[in-house]
Design goal:
26% helix, 15 strands, 9 helices, alpha/beta, single chain
Length: 337
C-alpha cells in the first residue's frame, strides 16, 4: 500500500505498473497493488510511503476496526517497534490551506490503537514517534475515518522513518510562509551537512519562509528576490537581501557560500540555466543545491528525466529527486557538487 500526494496517484500507478504491479483498491492520495512474485514495496519520486499490506477494515465503530487490526497483527513477529497513524491526503497540498500529515482525528485514533495493542504488540511509548533505521513500523492509514488500511514496513530512508512520510518539525517561531516547511524537509531529506555560520543563498527568497529556517539553524543567509522580504527576515543581523534577479548580480556576491536553495516561480529550464550559471562561476564554490522544479501539472512529470540528464552534465557527485511531502505540484532536486 502506497501513500502519495492527492493528484499524484496516476503517476504512482504508471510507475509501478511498469514493474509488474497489478493495481487494486485506490483513492486520491492512496494506492494499493499486488505482485505475482515476492517483491519488496516499490519506490519512486512520487511515492511518499510504501508498506506491505496486512489488510483493511471498514466500520463506523473504531473498536471494531481495532479488532480487525489486532487480527492482522497476529501474523507478525511481535512486538513491533513503532505505530504510525495518518490520514490520506484528502485535498491537493495548499488548497484550502490543506497540509499533509496526522490530523486531530488520526491522532485520537492513534492513541486509541496504542492503548488497545499495548506493550505486547508495540515497543513504542507513544504513537507517531520517529523510527530509527531498521526498526519495524506498523502503519495505519485512514483512507476515510471509517475505513482503515493496515501495513508494515522497515525504516530505511529518512522519510520512511517519519509518520506518513511527513517530517515532524516544531518551528521556534511562527513561520512566515509554508516555504519554511519545504526548506526544513528538503534539508533533512538531502542529508546536506548545513552547519551554524555556513553561508547559504536562496534564490526566490521572498517573503522569507525558507530563509527563516536557515536563520533558525544558525546560518548566514543571502536572499535574492526582486520582491520585499518580511521585516522579521530583512532586519535579521545574519541576513542580506539583494532586490534583484540572480542572473543580474555579479558572481562575487556569492563568494564563500556553501549552499544554494532555489524556489522561483519560473519555468524549470530557466531555473536550471540560472543554477548552472551560478555554479560554473570561478567566484562560487557551492557544495550542494536544493532546487524546486515547478511542474504546473503532474503531466509535466514526463520532463523529469530530461531535467535529470541536464543536471548530470554538471558532473555532480550525487543527484536525487523527490516529490516532498510539502511540495505542491513540483519536485525537489538535491544536487551534491
Amino acid at each position: 500500500m502506497l501513500s502519495c500526494a492527492h493528484g499524484a496517484e496516476g503517476l504512482v500507478k504508471s510507475t509501478i505498473a511498469d514493474e509488474g504491479w497489478r493495481l487494486s483498491f485506490s483513492r486520491p492520495g492512496f494506492v494499493t497493488a499486488k505482485h505475482d512474485q515476492a517483491h519488496s514495496p516499490p519506490s519512486g519520486i512520487f511515492i511518499r510511503t510504501a508498506s506491505q499490506s496486512l489488510g483493511s477494515g471498514k466500520s463506523g465503530d473504531a473498536d471494531e476496526l481495532i479488532d480487525r487490526l489486532l487480527e492482522a497483527t497476529d501474523s507478525l513477529e511481535l512486538p513491533v517497534d513503532h505505530l504510525h497513524v495518518w490520514p490520506r491526503d484528502r485535498a491537493p497540498i495548499g488548497r484550502f490551506d490543506f497540509e499533509p500529515g496526522p490530523d486531530e482525528v488520526s491522532l485520537a485514533v492513534a492513541d486509541r490503537i496504542h492503548a488497545r495493542l499495548g506493550p505486547e504488540r508495540l515497543r513504542c511509548a507513544t504513537p507517531n514517534e520517529i523510527a530509527q533505521p531498521s526498526q519495524r513500523v506498523l502503519d495505519v492509514v485512514l483512507v476515510d475515518p471509517s475505513q482503515w488500511f493496515f501495513g508494515i514496513h522497515t525504516a530505511t530512508t529518512l522519510p520512511s522513518r517519519w509518520p506518513g512520510g511527513v517530517q515532524p518539525v516544531s518551528p521556534a517561531y511562527e513561520p512566515i510562509s509554508r516555504a519554511y516547511f519545504k526548506a526544513a524537509e528538503s534539508i533533512a531529506w538531502s542529508g546536506f551537512d548545513l552547519r551554524p555560520d555556513d553561508l547559504a543563498v536562496e534564490v526566490g527568497s521572498a517573503p522569507g519562509g525558507a530563509c527563516g529556517r536557515l536563520l533558525e539553524m544558525g546560518l548566514h543567509v543571502i536572499g535574492v528576490d526582486p520582491a520585499d522580504m518580511d521585516p522579521r527576515i530583512a532586519d535579521h543581523p545574519r541576513f542580506i537581501h539583494y532586490a534583484a534577479r540572480a542572473g543580474d548580480l555579479p558572481r562575487r556576491v556569492f563568494r564563500g557560500a556553501k549552499w544554494l536553495l532555489v524556489d522561483s516561480t519560473v519555468k524549470p529550464d530557466a531555473t536550471l540555466s540560472t543554477v548552472r550559471n551560478l555554479i560554473d562561476s570561478r567566484d562560487t564554490s557551492f557544495r550542494g543545491c536544493l532546487i524546486t522544479m515547478k511542474l504546473g501539472d503532474y503531466e509535466r512529470a514526463e520532463q523529469i528525466p530530461r531535467w535529470q540528464r541536464e543536471v548530470q552534465r554538471w558532473r555532480p557527485k550525487k543527484l536525487e529527486v523527490r516529490h516532498l511531502a510539502r511540495n505542491r505540484c513540483e519536485v525537489c532536486f538535491a544536487v551534491t557538487l
